[in-house]
Amino acid sequence: MEASAHVWTRLEPLARPTQRLLSRVFSDVAPVQLQALEHAVRARFVSQSQAHARDLRASLYAVGARGLAHLMEAISADVGAQDWDVVDTRLAAAQRHFAVVLRAVAVAPRT
């Protein structure tokens, strides 16, 4: 189930002005989105978990973190199936890789 960290944390290139703006927004918003997802999953709220996973997926796609965005899609599907053991495992993996993405976004070239 777990792909290499490189795939989940690699960022796709973006136009520089867009990258600067998205980096700032992502750094502010995405940690809050992840925390909301964690809380909803812990409470086993299906619709809220799916909504937070979709929001975080969109944020990850926006900064080019496609691999981790795909993981959010899988989490959303697993939540829909109420396969909470798999959700917990995938969310733990996402949490580990999220920190790497956050650092990569923060140090992305700013020209």
List keywords for this structure.
5 helices, 0% strand, 111 residues, single chain, mainly alpha
Question: How would you characterize this protein structure?
Answer:
The chain is mainly alpha-helical and 111 residues long. The protein has helices spanning 5-9, 16-42, 46-62, 66-80, 84-106. The radius of gyration is 14 Å and the shape is elongated. The termini are far apart.
CA-CA gap between termini: 37 Å
Number of strands: 0
- Helix vs. strand class: mainly alpha
- Run of helices and strands: HHHHH
Shape: elongated
How large a portion of the residues is in β-strands, by DSSP E? Answer: under 5%
What profile does the largest beta sheet have?
A: none
Overall pLDDT confidence? 86
Separate helix tally: 5
- Estimate the helix proportion, in percent: over 70%
- Which value, in Å, is the CA radius of gyration? 14 Å
How are the SSEs placed, and which strands pair?
Elements: H1 5-9, H2 16-42, H3 46-62, H4 66-80, H5 84-106
Question: What would a concise description of this structure say?
Answer:
This protein has helices at residues 5-9, 16-42, 46-62, 66-80, 84-106.
